[in-house]
């Protein structure tokens, strides 16, 4: 019993940043999707990620041949040769990538001091979100995997390695191709859950919160910032600068697009959004706008 408790406690305390990100994901996803869909995706996403890792360490697919070093097996939870926290991280990485893609392609409406994304069921389940979301997640791995591979030099510890040294700071290109495939499967799973998990009117857990549409992108940026900070901390300046260069243009493009799309939406966009999500804050803003137009007339 003491050993089990030690492992359970160690699973959290050895990787506190993972569980901080995971807790942030739960808040953002529940406010956005509701408890039911969040739970469904957490379980499904973990299983997909876990299956991909077990396959790769045993068969070399989809990430290429790599291995885990079980130095922490007695201190944290391992399942079939894979640390529990590792597959868990895929879940919040997928959601924040999906949420970022959704924000990028959705119209925006300003309501007093808030910005509301006029997303719709059609946009949530679109190929555009699938493509952008999966690519956003791959780009996260381009920053996180090289520094994670240097875990012996920071508090992560050396937990894995590749059988052959890869071309990108030791990471093989097969790893990123595998991440793109698995990321696409994870985003597709989230889209299927959003489509087929039925909810009674307003989903339980969905609530109004200031700038709620930006929670997932903010989590995405936090993951980037954390990994780049660790990269520079261990003295890998070239690796860190590469990550900065990789993200400078995408962040600039997305920022400019968001700023220039505020309140530049069609009436059809707002109508479709309110038809799909009648509880949206955009409904209140639309009501206030209608009252002001009646008074002025």
TrEMBL record:
Positions of transmembrane segments: 17-35, 47-68, 88-108, 129-149, 176-193, 214-234, 240-259
Organismal lineage: Bacteria, Pseudomonadati, Thermodesulfobacteriota, Desulfuromonadia, Geobacterales
Lineage top rank: taxon: Bacteria
Keywords (A to Z) from UniProt: Membrane, Transmembrane, Transmembrane helix
Protein name: Membrane protein
